[in-house]
Every structure is written in C-alpha cells, then in structure tokens.
Design goal:
The protein is α/β, with parallel strands linked by helices and 85 residues long. Helices cover 29% and strands 25% of the residues. Strands 3-2-1-4 form a four-stranded parallel beta sheet. Helix 1 runs parallel beside helix 2. It is globular. The relative contact order is 0.30. The model has no long low-confidence stretch (mean pLDDT 90).
C-alpha cells in the first residue's frame, strides 16, 4: 500500500509517517522544497532516519500548498492521502 502524507515534517505528520513505515507502507512525504539528496534541507532528516530502520519505504517530494497542482505528482498511485499540512 502507498500513502501520501502532506505536512510530514510536522509533529502530527511525523507520527503518521512513523506508524505507516512501521506497518510496511510505501510513504510519499511532501515538503515545500527537497534538496538533491532528498533531505528537504534537513527538515525531514528524522523521517529519513525512521525509514532506515523500519520496514516501509520513504520518498520525499516537493509540494507547495500555494501552487496549484503541485501535489499531483506526489499523489499518483497512492491508496491513501493524509493531508495534515
């Protein structure tokens, strides 16, 4: 199963990502910007660390609530969307 979590770097979003990864989900987490190394400037480093020790997978995508259509790519193929941004 694949899930999108907006606001994944925040307190609630991080807990949702943690629980999904622990259950083996493929998680797409969004941030306003994502560096070439996929760390979102360090704001999502705790999520990358979680993904390294839990059975699920994590993919970081750039998306901005103020830009129409910026979540379209991140939502493709997702079974669930947790919008907590």
């Amino acid at each position: 199963m694949r899930a999108l979590v907006t606001g994944a770097a925040g307190f609630v979003g991080s807990e949702i990502v943690h629980q999904l990864l622990a259950k083996g989900y493929d998680v797409v987490a969004t941030a306003r910007s994502v560096d070439g190394d996929g760390t979102a400037g360090g704001r999502c480093s705790h999520l990358v660390a979680l993904a390294s020790v839990l059975p699920g997978t994590l993919e970081l995508k750039a998306a901005d609530l103020l830009k129409e259509g910026s979540f379209d790519e991140a939502a493709k193929g997702c079974d669930f969307i947790f919008h907590v941004a």
